[in-house]
Amino acid sequence: MLTPETRPTFATLLDAAALQASHADAPVISFIATGADPIQVSRTQFQERVRGYAAGLTRLGVAVGDLVIIAHTQNLESIYAFWGAMYMGAIPSMFPTLTEKLDPRTYMHNMNELVARSGVRLIFTSDDFAPVMARTANCPVIGATELAGLAEDVGQDELQPHLAHPEAIAFLQHSSGTTGLQKGVALSHGAVLNQLASYAEAIALREDDVIVSWLPLYHDMGLIAGFMQPLVQGIPLILMSPFDWVKHPALLFRAIHEHGGTLTWLPNFAYNHLARRVRQRDMAGVRLDSMRMFINCSEPVRHDSHQLFLQRFKDAGVREEMLAVSYAMAENTFAVTQTLPGHPPHLDVVDRRELEGKQLAIPIPPGPRAATLVSCGPTITHTQAQVLDDHGQVLPERLVGEIAIRSNCMLRGYYKRPDLNPFRDGWYLTGDMGYMAEGELYIVGRKKDLIINAGKNIYPQDIEAIVNTVPGVHPGRAVVFGVPDEREGTELIVVVAEVDTTDPQKRKEIAKAIRQAVAQNSTVTASYVKLVGRKWLIKTSSGKIARAANRAKWLAEQGYGPSVNAGAAGKGDGRSSQEK
Amino acid sequence: MPNLDESIVREKIRTYITHELIRDPDYDLADDEEIITEGLMDSFSLADFAVFVEQEFDVYIPDPDLTVDKMDTLNQMVDRVLRG
Known about the structure:
The complex is a heterodimer of chains A (580) and B (84). Chain A is α/β, with parallel strands linked by helices and 580 residues long. Helices cover 30% and strands 23% of the residues of chain A. Chain B has helices at residues 6-21, 44-57, 74-83. The interface between A and B is medium-sized, with 33 and 27 residues.
């Protein structure tokens, strides 16, 4: 196995266990889907397919160092294309696929931005969407069946794995954002191996672990924890599609029960989704005792979500010590911290007013003045974190500041963006606000306006730009913000837009058009749409829309006073503090 | 299997969708409006709908029937619940 001790025996990701000749029958992936039989892939089959897809890409003219975008359904074909690209020395990157819901013009506009900025050599997608995308894409597009055909009849010796330099870029992870201006986080083979080694140690990974994942592979948590880790380590992966799982949440638990799952990663909202939406009948006979850890990652962790999950599933075998937390980001490949296996995360009960007003985390007894924060654990081996004030000075424990990190698994840079330097004196500034206490990291909020909705990072200005195009809305007079929702365990998206018309029917049509426009042009749904008259929105002295002030006004009109708002957030992460 | 009255089922589901999922009680939801593909609610809501139907009507809709294709309109939802 790959650990910090064995790390020198691995040169590149092509040393992955799944690509080794030994244990030819060992399972690599079981792909499961609602209403279909599982598809089991052994090492021999995996290697054949990866070699085939590598040959297919070569036959299409893809060369070493070319960027290949995989914007396909989450299935085995996209996995073979990803590994096939790495096998022949190209640089793959997973992307969300076009869906029936999305407006293809917006999607392709964004994709062409990426093609222009990053020099995409080829886009791989589903048969359904390949012709749609090919019409407007500024680079070749290939559908699943065509590439599968080119991947056939590959001789055993036709293609040898590319001998990449350990510091060469292995793949890109595209970070947050709904526009085509997303940054490609370029990760080297060495950095990814370093992360996998340190993270394996942090979760005490074992050869008999079984990883179960519904997470999207275009997200760092899905790609690294729920995909690279098992394939590189030679641990079975039970994989499903996120689109399938959100509609059928019990699929995850059936997979754990049937395959003896031990590890899974979940954004915070998923604890609520599972606790509220797995039906009684779906749990009949389903046991979760095999699990070692449910790891909460990629959005602010709420203690009440953990408790809800624990109460609902304790009879099925979930125990408190299975609840774990990791703080992670694509720029560090994945994990920065991890709580200790076999122990529930530490809780820090602090004075909410001191936290929000003075940026101080002062422990107090539980009570109405207290905010309960969930620890993200200590940093993993070879990753360091420090908390900085506005002048870049390191703060002592229990003082809130911006989190900066340094590690041996950092990005090389943003792909083809030499103008962007992600580092300051060797440290990466995360934009997240938090504090250290007893050597563990606590996240309090964010420096910039950013909504994390169901694990997806959404910039409010991207959604505002969409709302501003809706006829009837005063251009430039719309505001978008997130509100923490206890029921859903995540931030929900609120749109407030100024309109002139007072006709109720016309207002309903505009509200509906806003919901449609957001759905078709982004990956999220607007949970609340409020239309208001002119001059409702509060602007700053410089004429910009004041997002935090409008958020407070909306909350007040909904009947939430400031204390209720702080209380709602304080139950989880206290994240409202940075917006005050 | 209780005998369900279509108009009662329809209005209960309509109220549930406008109040709980669209979060706009004044919303005029048409019977054939494409609720998910038109962006009024996301596909997470299908799982929520399944729980509501189990609790409200004691009807269990198996996972393969909980798809956007089969549950995009109020008409489709009502028909599926009435089939039990």
